[in-house]
Write a structure and sequence with these properties.
Blueprint lengths: L4 H4 L35 E2 L2 H19 L3 H5 L4 H6 L2 H11 L1 H4 L1 E6 L3 E3 L2 E10 L4 E11 L2 E9 L15
Antiparallel strand pairs: 1-3, 2-4, 3-4, 4-5, 5-6
Length: 168
């Protein structure tokens, strides 16, 4: 079984991020329950070594974002993603669409599922702004390393009132 947009469509909307395995440490984990995948997620539970490699890939990317190193963070992306995004475009996309990922203070990892050279990893990212967002990272094996192929936000959208208006 392989992961595809059709396979994941019932519970995810894909928005690409990045992925190359670097040895950067993951940010400290926030407290609370571990994020999890929907029970309908395809694949089998990842073994412990694979789980660790997947966490290192995502954690390395988060560490690069925290250093404001978008060129380094882009190295975590699949080759097809890297071909379509410059570091500047990538920076703008992450800062606008993923503020907690762009500036995180920690991440909690759930149990990954794997099917061949593809994997899903649930992650809860705690932003420096105090907001925690749950994501599903999709990763693929490329060139001997796990690379991030997409990220889906599972948290409900947060409404922000417009200045001068009050919510009723």
């Amino acid at each position: 079984m392989s992961f595809s947009l059709r396979t994941l469509a019932p519970f995810v909307l894909t928005a690409c991020l990045v992925g190359r395995l670097l040895a950067a440490p993951a940010p400290a984990a926030p407290r609370g329950p571990r994020p999890s995948l929907p029970s309908s997620a395809p694949g089998k539970p990842a073994d412990a070594p694979t789980q660790k490699l997947l966490e290192q890939a995502v954690g390395g990317q988060l560490a690069a974002f925290n250093r404001n190193d978008y060129k380094g963070a882009l190295r975590f992306a699949s080759s097809s993603f890297r071909e379509n995004f410059s570091p500047e475009t990538f920076r703008a996309m992450i800062r606008a669409g993923y503020p907690q990922v762009a500036a995180s203070k920690g991440a909690t990892y759930g149990a990954a599922r794997r099917s061949g050279d593809e994997a899903l990893l649930p992650v809860e990212v705690a932003g420096r702004d105090g907001v925690k967002i749950r994501y599903i990272y999709s990763l693929g094996r490329e060139g001997g390393a796990w690379r991030i192929t997409g990220v889906v936000n599972l948290s409900p959208a947060r409404r922000r009132p417009r200045p001068g208006l009050r919510e009723v």
